[in-house]
Design brief:
With 590 residues, this protein is α/β, with parallel strands linked by helices. Helix content is 35%, strand content 18%. β2 and β3 form a beta hairpin.
Length: 590
């Protein structure tokens, strides 16, 4: 029996590892083409800045010893893992029996070369002669990457998004900016400033447009804080930016156990790969506490001693956490250079980010932020997020504890937007955008995972229009793009609204609900519809055809200003998915 339980644990670990690993693979299905408006190019080159660890790193470039040390392909990783597979499984089995040392040593051995290659010195400089790739403005154009590099250097998962963008902007005017993601954003923002100058000099343009995401969004925000008044940027779109850091990193650094939600992690993996499967049921079968312990041990014992010298790791901490952990992990003499830049980043830039972005905005930069909410932080912390970045940290909004609301008597803060007639409260009652860095230029997408906008037609179209045109000035200017919207990824299954109201709203006269299928791969069986816990009379055998929609009758309860609508459905003829309930919130509008 003991051996059987041990094998079950090992098999579960392998299954989970495959799913987690698949998040790094580049096998995503192309997003479906949308009926986009016809844009007219304004002559501005577009600079694409990807997320953390995305850029390729090259050691000893131009020398005989040149080697790519980051940006390893999945096949290369498998080659490294296969010779050590028996040792890995054996060490995991021993870990399950309480002997952690073999696992630590095995993980250290397997990752030793990779970790050493990207190691930093105590002063925050690189241990080896490493540059990001593409390095020059000539190499960084999409035309060069496609024609001369056979696509090497193209951002992960972005091929289709860039191809769509190229229908408006010539490919030779679309650039991928890569920088050394290990360094401080103080250094990286100066590097970006130099790159923008190079793009302007090469193209003869007067300004550039910037699209950035995650760590790249934090970099863009830092650039705009320090250089935004120079007049070199027209439109800047920050998608899920880690502007204020992320608690995900500090959870790993802390002493407390982590509690990854494996069900959400598996769904996140499917979304990353654009695979229309809902495998959350598998997460319920896996040994969650055991896997979380493995991750925490691997990080603390093997990765942390190296990662602590990455300036970017400190940039990912909010101000309060940075202040608490700086003197725990960093020596004031040996790590003085790291501390100097991290202090500047936190106490100068991050502490005044809203003021800095508004200053750049007043200087003529159109800055727009896409934030996501409605998902618990990946480590299990009760924080509203997009699974990776806290909602508050992306944009400065006030967000409630995950699973709770701001409160029935909550009044929006209006600390930045002082117009009380503007409703900046999310239909869920969980987010107040009136205190954002940019309340009038921040959009929120409910239950959208981190940066997964190209699989969502709503956000995809919004980003392209914000980036390539001046049509949308703020969250009030275009009814197609309300400040708060639902994620419309095919994996989200259904989209719901009341037929007589805008998205996220209802009136006392609402009597009919539209249910739309977000997938054209499966028909959906609608099993039940509940409003505030009361089941609605929708009849039996209700089916929504692929990418189709139906209307159902509904009864609005009296005496409430917020509705909780639960749509339980299953994918027809999909044997690998369980029935799923999508919960959507609506607010009363007279």
């Amino acid at each position: 029996m003991k051996m059987k339980m041990k094998m079950k644990r090992v098999i579960s670990v392998i299954l989970c590892a495959v799913m987690i690993f698949s998040c790094t693979a580049s096998a995503a299905t192309a997003a479906k083409e949308e009926n986009l408006p016809s844009f007219e190019w304004d002559g501005h080159p577009v600079i694409f800045i990807q997320g953390y660890s995305g850029p390729i790193l090259i050691r000893d470039r131009g020398l005989e010893t040149e080697e790519q040390v980051w940006g390893i392909k999945p096949g290369d990783l498998f080659k490294k893992l296969i010779p050590n597979l028996y040792g890995i499984l054996s060490s995991i089995s021993k870990y399950a029996d309480g002997d952690t040392a073999p696992f630590v040593e095995q993980f250290r051995e397997v990752s030793a070369e990779l970790i050493d290659d990207i190691s930093m010195l105590p002063d925050g400089s690189s241990k080896y002669n490493i540059v990001s790739f593409p390095s020059t403005v000539e190499e960084a154009s999409i035309t060069y990457i496609k024609d001369e590099l056979n696509g090497d250097g193209m951002p992960f998962f972005q091929d289709d998004f860039i191809d769509t963008m190229a229908k408006t902007v010539p490919e030779e005017y679309i650039y991928v900016f890569n920088t050394d993601w290990r360094r401080s954003q103080i250094d990286n923002s100066a590097h970006l400033a130099e790159f923008i100058d190079s793009v302007l000099a090469k193209t003869g343009a007067d300004k550039v447009d910037i699209f950035s995401m995650s760590h790249g969004g934090q970099l863009t925000a830092t650039y705009l804080y320090y250089y935004g008044t120079e007049g070199k940027v027209d439109n800047a779109v920050l998608n899920s930016p880690a502007t204020g850091g992320t608690t995900l990193v500090t959870e790993l650094l802390g002493a407390d156990p982590i509690n990854f939600n494996l069900e959400e992690l598996l769904r996140f993996a499917c979304v990353m790969l654009n695979i229309e499967l809902d495998l959350r049921w598998l997460g319920r079968l896996l040994p969650q506490e055991f896997l979380n312990s493995l991750v925490k041990t691997a990080f603390n014992e093997v990765l942390l001693p190296h990662a602590i010298y990455f300036g970017s790791v400190w940039d990912f901490m909010d101000i309060e956490t940075y202040t608490a952990l700086r003197d725990v992990y960093l020596d004031p003499v040996e790590n003085a250079e790291i501390i100097e830049k991290a202090d500047k980043m936190h106490y100068e830039c991050m502490a005044n980010m809203g003021e800095g972005l508004r200053r750049a905005q007043q200087a003529g930069v159109s800055i727009n932020i896409i934030s996501n909410y409605g998902t618990q932080l990946g480590t299990g912390k009760k924080i509203d997020s997009d699974f990776i970045i806290n909602t508050t940290h992306t944009c400065g909004a006030n967000a409630s504890v995950y699973g709770e609301t701001l409160g029935k008597d909550y009044v929006q803060k209006n600390t930045v937007c002082k117009d009380a007639s503007h409703d900046h409260i999310a239909p869920t009652g969980t987010v107040d955008a009136s205190c954002c860095y940019l309340p009038e230029n921040t959009w929120f997408v409910y239950e959208q995972y981190h940066t997964q906008t190209w699989f969502d037609p709503y956000t995809r179209c919004l980003i392209l229009e914000l980036l390539l045109t001046d049509n949308i000035t703020d969250v009030h200017s275009d009814g197609r793009y309300p400040q708060f919207e639902l994620s419309q990824n095919p994996l989200d299954g259904v989209y719901v609204r009341f037929t007589d109201s805008k998205t996220g709203e209802y009136s006392q006269q609402s009597s009919e609900m539209l249910i739309k299928s977000l997938t054209d791969s499966y028909s959906l069986n609608i099993l039940s519809v509940k409003i505030n816990g009361v089941e609605q009379n929708i009849g039996e055998n209700l089916t929504v055809c692929r990418a189709g929609e139906i209307t159902v009758p509904c009864v609005i309860p009296e005496g409430t200003d917020r509705l909780k609508v639960e749509i339980r459905y299953e994918r027809k003829n999909d044997l690998l998915s369980d029935p799923f309930t999508r919960t959507i919130y609506f607010e009363y509008k007279d």
